[in-house]
Design a protein that fits this description.
By secondary structure, the protein is mainly alpha-helical. The chain has one domain. It has 9 helices and 2 strands; from the N terminus they run ααααββααααα. It has a two-stranded antiparallel sheet with strand order 1-2. A hairpin with a 4-residue loop joins strand 1 and strand 2. The radius of gyration is 26 Å and the shape is elongated. About 5% of the residues have low confidence.
């Protein structure tokens, strides 16, 4: 008869399979909370026209890919449900912060479209914006969709995904997030986004200002002239001409601004 004592001893000293499985599920869930919440808001992938099922499957797949490299950075399994709930809420909060900050950078082109629409007289020309899920001015919808297309064409979504993964080295899983730093950074990012939108739309706003001045002078010189019906077609044509001349340079500058903004997001804290 064979001696089964060594085999029985090895099985006895082998780690509990249920404990190992529970730890793996916990780590996978913790990774999915941050990665999934960030992807749900990430520009290009987190748009409303992308089905939520596709976004969820993408987040599950990315979590599976990065599980082995990141599992050593994750905290141990908590002892009670309160600690587990706190860890999940913390990871979701960090993911939502990353996704919202990237979404704020995308809103720059929405603001540019609002400025251009006000200067061109097209503020009443609204169109359904699939990225916002609501009605938006036609110029803003065009610029927003153009920026999303350029972000995907320039592989900027790869940079965003790498930033989400690298965030585990900046914001350790299991540690309390720096809420004060998040608030200060969000305020700075909002002001920088508004400043960038003003700079991109500056040519249109300057030309529109001078056209308004010229229209005011003409209305004072010739009060009987219907200046509104005269200047609006010229204003729309000039605005489109200025946008055609400056759109390429503005979008290249915007891509650099977007990348710099993402670098600040993942380096904060």
């Amino acid at each position: 008869m064979y001696n089964l004592t060594p085999m029985t001893s090895a099985i006895t000293h082998f780690p509990n399979l249920e404990v190992v499985t529970a730890l793996a599920i916990f780590h996978y869930l913790l990774l999915f909370c941050r990665i999934g919440s960030a992807i749900m808001l990430m520009p290009g992938i987190g748009e409303t026209f992308v089905p939520p099922t596709i976004r969820a499957l993408l987040a599950l797949f990315i979590t599976l890919v990065v599980y082995l490299p990141l599992k050593d950075t994750l905290p141990p399994q908590p002892d009670n449900l309160a600690q587990l709930f706190g860890l999940i809420c913390t990871e979701i909060f960090i993911g939502l912060f990353i996704g919202s900050a990237a979404r704020m950078l995308l809103a720059v082109m929405h603001i540019v479209g609002m400025f251009a629409s006000l200067q061109s007289g097209l503020s009443n020309s609204v169109f359904y914006d699939p990225s916002q899920g609501t009605q938006n001015v036609s110029v803003g919808t065009f610029l927003t969709m153009l920026s999303i297309t350029l972000l995907l064409a320039s592989d900027m979504h790869h940079f965003m995904l790498l930033g989400i993964i690298d965030s585990y080295h900046t914001f350790k899983a299991g540690d309390l997030p720096p809420v004060g730093d998040f608030s200060d950074f969000s305020a700075r990012l909002f002001s920088d986004s508004f400043r960038a939108a003003f700079m991109i739309s500056a040519p249109v706003m300057v030309v529109g200002f001078f056209m308004y001045v010229a229209g005011g002078i003409m209305s004072r010189l010739m009060p009987s002239l219907q200046i509104f019906f005269l200047i609006v077609p010229v204003q729309i044509a000039v605005t489109f001409l200025i946008m055609a001349l400056t759109l390429s340079a503005g979008m290249m500058w915007y891509l650099n601004f977007f990348k710099e903004g993402l670098s600040k997001i993942f380096a904060v804290g």
